[in-house]
Write a structure and sequence with these properties.
Blueprint (H helix, E strand, L loop, with lengths): L5 H24 L8 H12 L13 H13 L10 H7 L9 H20 L4 H16 L7 H5 L6 H4 L9 H11 L10 E3 L14 E5 L2 E4 L1
Antiparallel strand pairs: 1-3, 2-3
Helix pairs in contact: 2-5, 5-6, 5-9, 6-9
């Protein structure tokens, strides 16, 4: 075999790098079992609107979401693999790369935040529900936490309701309003990034935070 020239070798290496980047981007852009976040919630909402999905719009790509995607793919002549890649996303009319449009992004964020408030603060005074939502948004704005609502909500160990099943419940109208009010700028906590129930808290570290106020059963702290 003839040894390639330096120019040819450089060209081959460049092509190989381009293929690796393309493959990596395509893989990262595919949503499948285990994926989480606003884009998953957006896909769930679209599938639910069209009658393919009846589960929770919770931003978690579980088995019910997978089955709904398969049904949609079969109905629309797509490869029924249960994965949302570029072709399936295009058929759904959503984007899995780039920036989600403001209105759709807000819709999926509101759904996630409403479920978090419902799981953590249903039964609390309304202002306390808004305060819990505000803590999530304050974390998004803080350099100490993930910079998206889904990132904050799904941060491991951050909120008990996400991991004990309460997040899967349909949010009450009050919790949806509370999430919306917080997203519109109402922060009853004045910038707090933590809250806890003093009667049930077991993590000793949380007691080291400076409490700013109490609403209902929750203490809000920085």
């Amino acid at each position: 075999m003839r040894k390639p020239s330096d120019k040819r070798l450089i060209a081959l290496l460049a092509l190989a790098a381009l293929l690796c980047v393309t493959y990596s981007s395509a893989s990262a852009a595919t949503l499948t079992l285990g994926s989480r976040g606003e884009r998953v919630a957006l896909i769930q909402q679209r599938l639910k609107t069209w009658g393919y999905y009846t589960g929770a719009v919770d931003g978690i790509f579980g088995r019910d979401t997978y089955n709904a995607v398969v049904r949609f793919q079969r109905q629309n002549g797509l490869t029924a693999d249960g994965k949302v890649g570029p072709k399936t996303a295009a058929a759904l009319g959503v984007s899995i790369t780039g920036t989600i449009s403001a209105s759709l992004y807000r819709e999926s964020e509101l759904s996630l935040l409403s479920r978090l408030v419902n799981g953590e603060a249903r039964g609390e005074p309304y202002i306390g529900q808004v305060a819990v939502a505000a803590v999530v948004l304050n974390r998004v704005s803080s350099d100490e936490f993930p910079d998206t609502i889904s990132g904050v909500i799904f941060q491991p160990g951050a909120f008990d309701a996400v991991w004990d099943g309460q997040f899967d419940m349909e949010p009450t109208a009050s919790c949806v309003r509370a999430a919306r009010d917080a997203m519109n700028g109402w922060d009853p906590t004045g910038g707090c990034t933590y809250y806890y129930n003093p009667a049930t808290a077991t993590n000793e570290w949380i007691w080291s935070r400076t409490v700013q106020l109490s609403i209902g059963r929750h203490a809000f702290a920085i």
